[in-house]
Amino acid sequence: MRNLFFPGIIILSFFLKAQNNYPIVFLHGFMGWGESEMGEYNYWGGHDDFIEEMEKNGLTILELSVGPVSSNWDRAIEAYYQLKGGQVDYGKLHSKKYNIDQKPKNKVYDGIYPQWDEGNPIHIIGHSMGGQTARMLQYLLSQEFYVDEALKKNEESPLLGDIQNNWIKSITSISTPHDGTTLTQIVTKTIPFIQYFVGVAGVIGTEFYDFDLAHWGFKIKKEESWSNYLKRMKRHEAWDTKNISSWDLSLDGARELNGFLQASPDVYYFSIVTSTTKKRSSGLNHDPVEGTSILIRTRSKLLGSRSGYWSDGSKTDSLWFENDGVVNTISMYAPSTGVNGADPLLEYDNRDLLIPGLWYWKKLSGIDHWSIIGHLGNAERVTKAKDNLIDHIELLRSLPQN
Predict the structure, then answer these.
(1) Does 281 participate in catalysis according to the annotation?
(2) Is residue 1 part of a domain?
């Protein structure tokens, strides 16, 4: 794996102790949901409640609920307004390009952290696609966007029309497909991973779930059945655009994102890498290890034996076979496929003096894409996931204040 050496940087031992109490923002992934949206079944913990347990220990946790199948651009904008408050504004040019409602009437928020600014930054922990969305939010905060490039006329929204640096202290990605996942090609190109959601929904029911695509003019009809709602979703025109999750999660889409979602020198980056497969004793293919959920096993075996392809004809090699049942493990470390090359990357060692602007990775073997957040795993895996999350938050709190 890519390990970079930085001349002149002395690695020192230090003790982890709280130096900041910035809020921890939890950002779900593809097909995810927010607080109470699935009844008593939690995205962060499943039948357990990871967030409640952390709050009991005095941590400030903010849980977001963004579009479960929307693009990272749309999800990041929704995250901003849920935190800061105000009328969601996807941007004039973006909305015109994709023919979406720029300012949906049903998306006006009071803000759960209205004091958010340079003096009151946040830590973001994103699972799966949530890690990509966090990187997109950092990008949107750090740029000015124009309605008219020639006239330098800015977008009028508070997010897109101005630069807001140092609002994010750290970004942690958990099982995130930074370079995309080959599952988008193996399963389907229209609504990837839907089988996993259906498995979860079968346990907890679907009456709470909403694809949250009002800006596309799509919503559940009165007394509409779940199966019909799902069928309409799969046929929606959004899937034929680049403004949707299936594009951002694909190899080509992720590579396009990586071309401009580069690491900021002001942000600390961490990646928690998961794997539930091992290489066969003979050959290069990977098989699921013991303890892998039955809903994960079939897909992990497929990911462990098939290559993916970029549109230029190049294909993934056998290093992509290791996976967590949804995402190729090699894709989780850090963005590496953009036109500007890979983000800097180091394996995290608790003796390191942490430096912003580069990625620190930690690998958890024997953990799949869902058990890392408390789903579909045995007690051992769920406990391991929760303990890892608590330990990592202590690390975030040890980062220096601004």
Answers:
(1) no
(2) no
Residue type, 88: V
In a domain, 401, yes or no: no
CATH code for the domain of 218: 3.40.50.1820
C-alpha span between 327 and 321 (Å, rounded):
10
Catalytic residue from among 71, 128, 157, 271 = 128
| Count of domains for the chain | 1
Residue 9 within a domain: no
Burial class (CB in 10 A: 0-12, 13-18, 19+), 59: middle
Catalytic residue among 89, 248, 252, 324: 324
27-81 tens-digit pLDDT: 999 888 888 777 788 999 988 889 988 888 888 999 999 998 899 999 999 999 9
Q: Is 70 a catalytic residue?
A: no
Report how far residue 78's alpha carbon sits from residue 140's, in angstroms, rounded to the nearest whole number: 12
Each residue's pLDDT tens digit, 6-16:
333 333 333 45
Residue 7 lies in a domain: no
Q: What ranges in 33-172 are assigned the alpha helix state H?
A: 50-56, 72-84, 92-98, 129-142
User: In terms of residue numbers, what domain contains 149?
Assistant: 24-393
Active site residue 371: no
From the list 94, 369, 375, 392, the catalytic residue is 369
Q: Which pLDDT tens digit goes with each residue over 242-292?
A: 999 989 999 999 999 999 999 999 999 999 999 999 999 999 999 999 989
pLDDT at position 366 over 80: yes
